[in-house]
Amino acid sequence: MKVIKATSSHIPSIARLYVDSWRITYEGLVPAAYLKDLSYEQSTEKWSLFLSEPSHFILLAIDERGEIAGFSAGKPYLSSAEIYALYVCKKAQNQGIGHLLFSHSVKEFANQQYTSMIIWAMKKNERAVQFYKKLGGQKILNRTSQFGETKVEDEAYGWERLPSI
Fold first, then answer.
1. Are 105 and 71 in contact (CB under 8 A)?
2. What pLDDT digit, counting tens, does each position of 72-125 carry?
């Protein structure tokens, strides 16, 4: 498994992985209609816009077949850094890819001179919450997200100092 920085040519694959991951990960957490309405086209626009910002990055985990097994996206957040997204495709989970992407994101933030970071997770996404806690994240913020009529509680996990990974 290797980790590379994404370019605009990777955006369609990132968009597919993002939509597919949402449909699997958030089933039962957000309305089914919301998940059904997610589109690869809108996702492509979202990630193209994200990557067009000079302070943003997307890292890809590439497997031995040259396929994207997962991605992480980072950006500034106030005076800190934020892992904005971290997704691993279903068939590649439980192989350490999430940890690999997390650690490479931390290194990227360190290279950009950040000293602290956060990541948001849906409170009921127990797998993500446990993952961030295991990596030393402390719950620091709460917010509510709205999906149609459904409200979802989110939690931010923070590191006052970038973790040593």
1. no
2. 999 999 889 999 999 999 888 888 999 999 999 999 999 999 999 999 999 999
The second-level CATH assignment, the architecture, of 2-114 is 3-Layer(aba) Sandwich (3.40)
Query: Cβ distance 116 to 152 under 8 Å?
Result: no
Burial (0-12, 13-18, 19+ Cβ within 10 Å), 97: buried
Q: What is the pTM of this model?
A: 0.93
What is the number of other CB atoms lying within 10 angstroms of the CB of residue 120?
A: 19
The Cα–Cα gap between 153 and 69 comes to 28
Q: Cα separation of 46 and 27, whole Å?
A: 21
